[in-house]
Design brief:
single chain; transmembrane; membrane; transmembrane helix; mainly alpha; about 70% helix
Length: about 70
């Protein structure tokens, strides 16, 4: 991730993952053990994306090149 655009894409993927997790918890969680495992994995990956994007944002907040939209 070199700039703000990359972090926003990863953050968006994390948010979409959380939405998918919520839908799975609402409708598919109690069907069988496989859906519980899949829901857990999607939630963990979504958390990783959001935390990683936030960490990278905080680490590069003062870098002037980070705020450029184009590569």
């Amino acid at each position: 991730m070199k700039n703000i655009k990359d972090d926003l894409i990863v953050f968006g993927m994390g948010v979409i993952g959380f939405v998918i997790t919520f839908i799975m918890l609402k409708f598919l969680y109690n069907i069988n053990q496989a859906f519980k495992i899949i829901t857990f994995v999607v939630a963990m990956l979504s958390s990783l994306f959001v935390i990683g994007a936030a960490h990278h944002f905080c680490k590069n907040f003062t870098n002037g090149d980070y705020w450029k939209w184009k590569d």
